[in-house]
Each structure stands twice: as structure tokens, then as C-alpha cells.
Write a structure and sequence with these properties.
Number of strands: 12
CATH class: Alpha Beta
Number of helices: 6
CATH superfamily: PAC-like subunit
CATH architecture: 3-Layer(aba) Sandwich
Order of helices and strands: EEHEEEEEHEEEHEHHHE
Mean pLDDT: 88
Shape: globular
Largest sheet: 10 strands, mixed
Distance between the termini: 47 Å
CATH topology: Rossmann fold
Length: about 250
């Protein structure tokens, strides 16, 4: 049976969790990795859930190994970060949601689930990626006061992030979905910056230095290209949003 192994006990006051499962543009992955690297985060818990790849992750300059899916906490704010080093299936994501459902309720956690919407942008001339907000379980108020409009067209969120949102809807757990235009072929630091600056920073009060994502965009793309290549051909394991075409 799946479980979360808490390795650093601490108290939270209505925390926000940023989800970083790989998806279109690797937006959530880039956001989560950037937060873990930029803030003075500490490992909060390791995730052990059925369906997750049986693998051991390790970091540069450290002999310790850990699980490929982990939770980090920022000690100066009520911010939790889900970091994943591997693509996961929707079934594994749903199992993860079941693992943490009780803990979410107990700690009043509000997750921010991130999905990239495939969009072609013409370099810098393409403008800033558009971000949209959706919510379930009465979490609409989380987006009040933020520069996050409602979707301009009907759509569908699939893959791991879709499974997490579906689980939240079925169990009436508060959750926010962030749908952002993202490059369908390459890791997209620009889309990640929009999520950071429009939602994560104003909501949590952290200074995540989103500007550095574009400053080091090429390095970030190179670092993430191997993961992006692993995800090709495995559409069911890719978190993504897509517009639905309606005909009358």
C-alpha cells in the first residue's frame, strides 16, 4: 500500500503545494525544480506509491539516495513542492492522490496542478504565454485577486495532472488547475516564469527569481531535453491541456 514517509516534521498553516509532474513544455517540472533550487527548501517527505517507477535518485555531491518523487518544504512560508524525476502514468498519479488525501484534508493543503496547453509561439515575438485558472472543491477563491483569467475556450486536462484534478473533483478536495500556453516540442522556461510570477509568488510571498528562468533558458532546455525525449510517444503519461472544438 502506498504511503508518504515524512522525514522532516514541521507544522503548516493552510499550505500551498506546487505540483511538478512532467508534462507539455515540462512547465510544472521546471517550476518545481526552480523552487527547490532557488529557495532554502528542505526535504519534507519521500513518496512511496504503487505505480511509481522503482528507482533510486541521487544528487550531485551527495551519496544519499531517495525516491524519484519527493515533497520539499520552504521553511519560511507555507509552501510545499512536489518534485518528480520521472514521468508517471495517470494511474500512478491517482494512486498518489489517494496516498495523500487524508494528509491534504488534515493539513488543509491547497494543491496547484499545472498543465501545459500546446501552443506555437514565434520566439520573443509570440508574447507572454497565456495563463488560465480552473478550480474544484470550492478553491475558486484562491485565484481571487490574481492576474489569472478564466479559460477563453472549453478544454480538457489529461495525463497525471488530469488524474489529480479528477480525483480532487470526485472526493471534493479543494484544488487549483493552472493551464498555460507551452511549447509542444521543447522545455518551456517562459511558461514556467508566468506560473511563478502570476500565481506562486503572490500567493505564497516567496521571491522565486522567475526572471532567471529566461536568463538561463538555454541551459534549462539542455538539462531537461533528456526527460522530454523519454516522454515522446507516451502521451498518456504526459500532463497536458487541450482545447475542445465545439460544433453546432
Amino acid at each position: 500500500m502506498g504511503h508518504i514517509d515524512v522525514v522532516s516534521e514541521r507544522e503548516f498553516d493552510d499550505p500551498v503545494l506546487v505540483e511538478g509532474f512532467p508534462g507539455v513544455g515540462l512547465v510544472g517540472k521546471i517550476v518545481a525544480d526552480h523552487l527547490v533550487e532557488t529557495l532554502d527548501t528542505e526535504l519534507y517527505a519521500t513518496v512511496h506509491c504503487d505505480g511509481l517507477p522503482a528507482a533510486a535518485a541521487y544528487a550531485a555531491g551527495d551519496r544519499a539516495v531517495t525516491t524519484p518523487v519527493r515533497l520539499y518544504a520552504d521553511p519560511d512560508s507555507d509552501l510545499l513542492i512536489l518534485q518528480s524525476d520521472v514521468p508517471v502514468s495517470p494511474d500512478a498519479a491517482e494512486e498518489f492522490a489517494g496516498c495523500i488525501e487524508g494528509w491534504f484534508r488534515e493539513e488543509s493543503v491547497t494543491p496547484l496542478y499545472i498543465a501545459g496547453l500546446r501552443a506555437d509561439r514565434d520566439g520573443e515575438a509570440g508574447g507572454s504565454p497565456t495563463l488560465r485558472g480552473i478550480a474544484v472543491g470550492g478553491a475558486d477563491g484562491v485565484l481571487d485577486g490574481l492576474d489569472v483569467p478564466v479559460p477563453e475556450a472549453a478544454g480538457l486536462v489529461s495525463g497525471p495532472t488530469g488524474a489529480l484534478l479528477a480525483h480532487a473533483m470526485e472526493t471534493d478536495l479543494p484544488a487549483v488547475g493552472l493551464v498555460v500556453d507551452a511549447d509542444p516540442q521543447f522545455p518551456d522556461p517562459r511558461a514556467a516564469r508566468v506560473v511563478l510570477e502570476s500565481v506562486v509568488e503572490p500567493l505564497t510571498g516567496v521571491d522565486a527569481d522567475g526572471e532567471s528562468l529566461e536568463t538561463h533558458a538555454e541551459r534549462i532546455r539542455r538539462a531537461k531535453e533528456q526527460l522530454a525525449a523519454q516522454m515522446e510517444g507516451g502521451e498518456e503519461n504526459v500532463s497536458q491541456a487541450q482545447q475542445l472544438r465545439m460544433y453546432q
